[in-house]
Amino acid sequence: MNRQPVVAGQFYPASASQLRAMIGKMVDEEAEKEDVIGLIAPHAGYVYSGPVAGAVISRVKFKNTFIILGPNHTGRGKPLSITAKGKWRTPLGEVQVDAELAGHVLELTRHLQEDDAAHQYEHSIEVQLPFLQYFKPDIKIVPIALSFASFDAYREIGREIARAINDTKREAVILASSDMTHYEPHAVAARKDRQAIDAILSLDEDELLRRVEENNISMCGVAPVASLIVAAREMGATSAELVKYQTSGDTSGDYSAVVGYAGIIIKAVAMHPLVQLAKDTIEAYVNEDRVLSPPRELTPEMKQKAGVFVSLHRFGELRGCIGTFEPTQPNVAGEIIANAISSATRDPRFPPVAPEELKDLEYGVDVLTRPRPVKDEKELDPKKYGVIVECGFRRGLLLPDLEGVDTVDQQINICRQKAGIGPGEPIKLYKFEVKRYK
Which runs of E-coded beta strand occur in 53-181? Predict the structure, then answer.
């Protein structure tokens, strides 16, 4: 296939110099590049979605090949199709198809068929190419267009892509091309998109597909994103990060009917040993009713004595948080084990964590410094210091740098409420800092 551009002059400039200048204003040349397994980028006209696409692609450490999964808007060609050879042209030059990798995907797959018609007039892959060429003119691609199919087919395609990359030992990044909610009021679109984004950040394709279906989220690239999530997990992905979100209303000023755009990177990040201990502890306790022993080889952070809080989140919402003001165990490792079990099973605000929830949990460990008395509230800073409010035997604690807690008064009032200390009762204040691990 020798594919010519079909939306140059519409979605982006047809002039190479104008196109390069436009992309240059949308990317961040100084952004720190990261090793990623995959990313999600939008595919609308650059004036609307370009800032999001530029922001997310700027974060990617480029590899030789990008496997690009895009939706099929046109309905032409095979519903699940791949271009296995040839080249694609944009105003910035030609992009070669990685024939070896694409060919191996074809050998492995039960679902994808080699087909050029599906790609001939489809824009979802084309609009990604100039951004890739801007950073790496000799980039290669494997173009895959996905239309309607079963959820199982999307999952299998993801696994097949991961296997093909591993088999060929190719240096490749997987890019899912998708816009989010289409033509709804800004507030509605942002709310719906947040539900889909949270499922993506949890690397849960089942939850994404369920939320899109149940909430009627008009996310055109849900199939490419679902396949990307499966492939990324197969390749060791452990986390995802929302780089940028906005809607077309942020460009046009018309918020009555917008399209949402999200830029997300997916990467493999090794857990810090303290967080891994919390995770292992909870999984052993919930699955086997077994209490872990501290590791034989303690890291330096595990050897100290300190108060520790273990927090759990699921789909972006708090799922448990229990901790100790001051050390109660011989070391931080023991503190984490005790408080991880409590966070998962004894937080009075939540039912105990069930085995089927474990795959969705995100873990955090906060190690506290020793609390110091505070003589004046001016010594406090809600972003830097946690607070303990004490009245007799009643004590309330609040960790620092919490979303929605921006003032010292808020910190103190929340601590009073947690400890059952009335507004007029005299109190003693203590401050502490935390080392936060996620």
Answer: 65-71, 80-82, 87-90, 93-97, 113-114, 140-146, 172-177
